[in-house]
Amino acid sequence: MKYLLLISFIPALASFSASAADNTLQAGQKLVDTHCINCHASSYGGDGSGIYTRDYRKVRSLNGLKAQVTNCNTMLNLKWFDDEEQQVVQYLNHSYYHF
Q1: What is the CA radius of gyration of the chain?
Q2: The whole model's pTM is what?
């Protein structure tokens, strides 16, 4: 009986997890759209997103991506909290880097 009860919770947990991941990606995208795209567009051109996919990009690993997001946060004095940095990292990794 306990086993059946446990199995009945698995779909709910999966749904909750997917919803939380979607919320994180949406929050990360909003931060990027608000704080990053204008700077990237002015320094790289176009809509700014090409900076993530160019052949000679600086970011080559997940740790490198985390470091770059932290660097931008610090240099631009964005005052993001750690969770906001993580949201941006997750969004950029999901959308562009795929580490």
Answers
A1: 17
A2: 0.77
**3-state secondary structure labels for all residues of 3-58:** HHHHHHHHHHHHHHHHHHHHHHHHHHHHHHHHHCHHHHHHHHCCCCCHHHHCCCCC
List the structure tokens of 16. 């909750």
d(CA 97, CA 99): 6
What letter would DSSP give residue 80?
A: -
Q: Element (H or E) spanning 64, and its range? A: helix 62-75
Residue numbers in the chain where pLDDT is lower than 70: 1-18
Residue type, 9: F
- Amino acid letter, residue 13: L
Provide the residue ranges of all domains of the chain, joining segments of one domain with +.
Answer: 22-97
Q: What are phi and psi of 11, to 5 degrees?
A: -60, -35
For residue 30, what are the contacts with CB-CB under 8 A and spacing of at least 6? none
